[in-house]
Amino acid sequence: MLSALAREIAGGRGAVDLLYVNNEQEGVLEGFRNRNRGLARLFLGRVYRSRKDARADHRILGSQPEGEYASSDFEDCSIWRWTTSGGL
Fold first, then answer.
1. In whole angstroms, what is the distance from residue 41 CA to residue 36 CA?
2. How far is CA 38 from CA 8, 41, 54, 79, in A?
3. Which helix (H) or strand (E) holds 29?
4. Cβ contact 82:20 at 8 Å
5. Using only C-alpha atoms, what is the Rg of the chain?
6. How many whole angstroms separate alpha carbon 54 and alpha carbon 73?
7. Phi and psi at residue 47, in whole multiples of 5°?
8. 54 CB neighbour count, 10 Å cutoff
């Protein structure tokens, strides 16, 4: 997905913001940042759910076989900005 995005925005000017929720593959973005200009992480941390969202999540996860997913009152998230200035 990141390579396709790079091709799509190459040569353009502006910024693309990536909001990554449940960032289990954060290392992929970090590695991509090391190989591409203009990609910067703006935020890395927890985003807490509303009580209503947490209850809904717990209900959904209760039907998962063998407890394959866990739940908490927050999601680990990151926000990235990819700034382009005529190429990457």
1. 13
2. 15, 10, 35, 14
3. helix 26-35
4. no
5. 17
6. 6
7. -115, 120
8. 15
Q: Give the largest Cα separation in the chain, rounded.
A: 50
CB 85 within 8 A of CB 35: no
Q: How many residues in total does the chain contain?
A: 88
Compute the distance between CA of residue 26 and CA of residue 44 in angstroms, rounded to an integer: 10
Which two three-digit tokens encode residue 41?
Answer: 């992480």
Spatial distance between the Cα atoms of 50 and 66, rounded to a whole number of angstroms: 26
Range of the domain at 59: 2-85
State pLDDT tens for residues 1-32: 888 888 888 777 778 899 998 888 899 999 98
Tell me the β-bridge partners of 76. 46
pLDDT tier, 88 (very low <50, low <70, confident <90, very high otherwise):
very low
Question: Tokens 């990536």 belong to which residue?
Answer: 18
How many structural domains does the chain have?
1
